[in-house]
Amino acid sequence: MGDIGLNRRQLLLAGAGLLATAYGLSGCTVERPIDKSAAGDVVEPKIDGDLMIFNWAQYMDPSIKKSFADKYGVAVNEVNFDNLEAMMTKLRAGGSYDLIFPSTEYVLRLRNEQLIRPFNRSRLKNADTLSKFYDDPWYDPNSEFSVPYAYYTTGIAWNTNEVDTLTGSWNDLSNEQAWGRIFMLDDFQEGIGQANLLNGFYLNTDKSDQLQTSKDTLLDQKKGLRGFSTNSVQNLVSGAAALTQAWNGDVVNARNQVDDPSIFAYETCKEGVPVGSDLMCIPITSKSPGTAMMFMDWVLKPENAYKNVMWNGYPMPVAGGREAFAKLVKDDPSIDVNLDQLADSAMEYRLDSPEARQEWTRIWTEVKA
Amino acid sequence: MTSKRFWDWFIFPGGVWIALLFAVPLCLVLALSFGHVDDFGRGVYGFTLDNYKDVFDPTYVPVLLRSVGYALATVILCLLVGYPVAYFIARHGGRYRYALLAALVIPFFVNYLVRTYAWVALLSDQGLVNNLLVDLGLSQQPIQFINTPFAVIGGLVYGYIIFMILPLYGSIERMDPSVIEAGKDLYGSPFRTFLHVTLPATQAGILAGCVLVFLPAVGDFVSAQLLGGPDTYMVGNLIQDQFFAASNWPFGSALTVIMMLFLAVWMVFYLRRASRGEAEVL
Amino acid sequence: MAEEAIRIENVTKRFGDFTAVDDVDLSIAQGEFFSLLGPSGCGKTTTLRMLAGFEVPTAGRILLEGDPVEDVPPHQRNVNMVFQSYALFEHLDVQGNVAFGLKRKKVAKDEIVTRVAEALELVDLSSRAAARPNELSGGQRQRVALARALVNRPRVLLLDEPLGALDLKLRRQMQIELKAIQREVGITFVYVTHDQEEALSMSDRIAVMSDGRVAQCGPPEEIYEHPREEFVAGFIGVSNLLEGKVEPGGKVRIGDDCLPVPGLDGAGNGDTIQIAVRPEKVAVDEIGADAYAIEPDMFTVEGEIESKVYLGVGNQLTLKLGNGSRLVALEQATYRMRADEQWEVGQKVKVGWHPEHCMVLS
Ligand SMILES: Nc1ncnc2c1ncn2[C@@H]1O[C@H](COP(=O)(O)OP(=O)(O)O)[C@@H](O)[C@H]1O
Ligand SMILES: [Mg+2]
In this complex, does chain B touch chain A, defined as having at least 3 beta-carbon pairs under 8 Å apart? Predict the structure, then answer.
């Protein structure tokens, strides 16, 4: 056997090398820089190659991809990510995709990092019926980089067999009938956000004293919790949850999985209704941006939007999609939240500075720890 | 001389492999742990100790303590359950020994996440176990198994018990069975013989099993995430959240480094014990 | 006979359909050094393990000092065993090993200390009291195993090939020490071995076992000089086997020769029987020369030296007799022999032995 063990001197050398690496990398980001020369070019719709979609799993009706492929004679491929952070990492590393589905916050970050391309929105034939809610949004001034795909509102879902004393307030997360069988979404923004609203603060407040108050609210609420979870469908269907903070799309899915859908009800809260949106963007690494833009328009086409909503249960803020969702939840219209009628109570999560984000995540950790 | 040199070359491919897949990522994590987050939420290399200061913030102490506590409980339960199983297979398995071992090992090829989900299905309020209990009249109402610390520890035990059973099996099988008979011959009742002879004779396996279970259990996040309640947050969950929810990779890296140092201490402790044990055998 | 320590009454042990011990019937006296001798696989260990309580007889009874013990578990029997592998506790030092039994019996602390010291003294290991078993040589480990058993002052000590793992020289030395220790402590020893020399030199009595049964049981001299069957004669030392027909007048005809054999009482005329002569009882002389080895009252035949093996202390000669049968003779070198006087292969010789050294086998 050769001498493969490291002696003390070799270990010291290795340690020094490591420090040198750290200094050498100083100021670099985790990923290597990519070519951003195309970042300013505005995309026009035209068939310019096959399509590679990068999306959440099970988020789009495959028949929409197939009909597009048949109509335009291109291949439509899809790969999936597990979380948006993973998607970001892949894009920063230069992964080539034509269409991605980030949330509002991630659109802002993608824009800031110049990882997505602007496109000529006026050439999208089916964008006229989009909700006004998405005009000139905070994360994408003039809507140059994104169009909405689907949205969800955050409210409270409960089992009507077990709970009947709801008040239409975020206070219901401490409902006595459901005590011990309540779930809160395992998402720092949803958790802190509802506490902020309950305390009458701005949803996205970054004031330390207000956040401190909200933390106390959360610690109080935690006493009645059975857990933090984003798996609302399973928690409702398995009977683990009597009441849970939930996204409205999940309530539709939960109702689909039981014999009597009416046992699951949903409310939005008077203090404010957080709205989350997933949007469609074209990365700068796209090889077929024109095809990607054609496909966006295809997805927004009323009959396709209708099919898609019927398939995945998430409302789309566009003609066809709205009707489909209304039909899905006709027994419990409360699940159907019309963005255009929400007016002032509709709110979006946004954390503009890394410091605010750190403060929020820290508070959330303190609540969970 | 030359042939010795020649064979030395064979560590090269493996060495490079280990360097690329293990050492390099490790170095990057270490380097990033001294970095910070930029305005875009990206991790940026640099040199600051802030992340390490944060690790030792009192906020995280309960999380660390809880993780260690769960892991210790897991180790003890694995030992209590695993020892009889390993003992039975090693000493009374006869020609079915390998079949029995295979029956234990094969389920562990199934993804840990999937296996844990199976537990959710089994133990949920309207799961198989609760239905049975209610149907048999053993319980009026479903018992809340999941979303409790017990469920988390149960999940950990289930997830890692094979790492206890295999080294135990190895050491029990290697043990000279006449040593047990010597214990009985020298007036040891079965229990005393087990306590004073069998246990010490298999302590190398016990130690290996405890370390092998403790290490992954203390860093686990799956069990707490799927089976846990509001008060079961573990270090693994904290680290996972830093990477995928809080977008704070540098802090996540610092947590990872500290965790690894903590585990390395255990590892060194174990290796020293193990090498001493080996010397005793020779 | 002195008081009885062990009685094995018609004991049979089967593993499945295999009979390991077959209707064994033995009585062992208090203070006796009793050996179970036989080839590997003949059931010695199984017999010993039944005495210790690790195996339960399929049939028959075992009595220790008159009490039946088949149902008494090992830890409640007042016997101790020295295992073939020693089975020392590696995690304890020498003292800890020796004290193990006394601690389990809850003997008082200070008494344990004195008795352990005595036991170590007895096996001459006092200086290694704090050593770990893995630091000891094979012989030392053996002594620890012995001390660990003896310290309990059992009524009976069971030893399963205790010297099997030692080299020849150490073996010889330990045989002497073991015997001395047995005399000193006066405990009944039941000693298992497959080494006939060991058994002969140490035992008060020997039970020769074959295929699970006891072929012959008696003192060493009796076993050696009067083996009752071919197996025993062959297993204990080397024997020359000759086949012949019984003739009137207490003679046996082998080929052309007719030799006198004592103890033919049971056999009728014309019966074919086997007789055995030990090689060391065979004398060889040159033809024509004065009688040197052969004594007047010996029965003699002529033969020829077929081969010769020089042993240092003597010669082992293979002789071909006139009637065609072969005989081995062990010729001891003595002060009367001169170094240059050597047999040559092919040389014609006179061969003789005393008739009373003929053993009749059944
Ligand atoms: N536990 C057992 N199961 C089956 N066969 C056994 C067992 N123990 C011993 N034997 C068989 O019994 C026979 C006698 O064994 P043993 O008493 O150990 O012989 P010895 O000690 O004389 O060499 C052997 O053929 C052995 O294979
Ligand atoms: Mg044996």
Answer: yes
Gap from B68 CA to chain C (nearest CA, Å) = 30
CA-nearest of A276, A277, A272 to A342 is A272
- Ligand 2 center–CA C46 separation, angstroms: 7
Quick one: A68 exposed, middle or buried, by C-beta within 10 A (0-12, 13-18, 19+)? buried
The distance of C79 to chain B (nearest Cα, Å) reads: 8
Q: What is the dihedral of CA A267, A273, A274, A277, to 10 degrees?
A: 80
Contact: chain C with chain B (3+ CB pairs below 8 Å): yes
Q: Do B59 and A83 touch (CB under 8 A)?
A: no
CA of C362 to the centre of ligand 1 (A): 28
Partner residue opposite B62 with nearest CB, options A240, A362, A369: A369
Domain boundaries, chain C: 4-235, 240-361
The closest alpha carbon to B263, from B206, B204, B228, B213, belongs to B213
Report the top-level CATH class of A153-275+337-368. alpha beta
SS3 A346: strand
CB contact under 8 A, B201 and C87: no
Q: Which fold has domain C240-361?
A: OB fold (Dihydrolipoamide Acetyltransferase, E2P) (2.40.50)
CA of C15 to the centre of ligand 1 (A): 8
Tell whether the model's pLDDT for residue A1 goes beyond 70. Answer: no
Q: Is C41 in the pocket of ligand 1 (CB under 6 A)?
A: yes
3-class DSSP state of C14? strand
Provide the edge-to-edge strand list for the sheet that holds A51-56: A76-81, A51-56, A99-100
Domains A2-146+281-300 and A153-275+337-368 share a fold: yes
Does B228 sit within 8 Å of A357, measured CB to CB?
Answer: no
In terms of CA atoms, which chain C residue is nearest residue B192? Answer: C104
Radius of gyration of chain A (CA): 23
C24 lines ligand 1 (CB under 6 A): no
Integer angstrom CA distances of residue C282 from B208, B279, C4, C301, C341: 66, 56, 40, 11, 19
Going from N- to C-terminal start, the domains of chain A cover 2-146+281-300, 153-275+337-368
Q: Over its length of 362 residues, how does chain C's per-residue pLDDT go in tens digits?
A: 468 999 999 999 999 999 999 999 999 999 999 999 999 999 999 999 999 999 999 999 999 999 999 889 999 999 999 999 999 999 999 999 999 999 999 999 999 999 999 999 999 999 999 999 999 999 999 999 999 999 999 999 999 999 988 888 889 999 999 999 999 999 999 999 999 999 999 999 999 999 999 999 999 999 998 888 889 988 887 788 888 888 887 888 887 778 888 877 767 778 888 888 889 899 888 887 777 788 888 888 889 999 988 888 888 999 998 777 888 999 888 776 666 667 888 889 989 898 888 888 87
Domains contained in chain B, CATH given = 53-276 (1.10.3720.10)
Q: What is the pLDDT of residue A343?
A: 62
Q: Answer yes or no: is the C-beta of C42 below 6 A from any ligand 1 atom.
A: yes
Neighbours of B (≥3 Cβ pairs closer than 8 A)?
Answer: A, C
* C91 φ/ψ angles, rounded to the nearest 5 degrees: -85, -5
Look at B37 and A358 and tell me if their CB atoms are within 8 Å.
yes
CATH of domain A2-146+281-300: 3.40.190.10
Distance CA C74, CA C58 (A): 17
In 3D, which of B223, B219, B232, B220 has the Cα closest to residue B261?
B219
* Gap from B278 CA to chain C (nearest CA, Å): 11
| CA-based nearest residue in chain C for residue B278 | C134
- C302 is written with which tokens? 């002529």
CATH superfamily name and code, C4-235: P-loop containing nucleotide triphosphate hydrolases (3.40.50.300)
Burial of C349 per CB tally in 10 Å (0-12, 13-18, 19+): buried
Residues of chain B contacting A4 with CB distance shorter than 8 Å: 11, 15
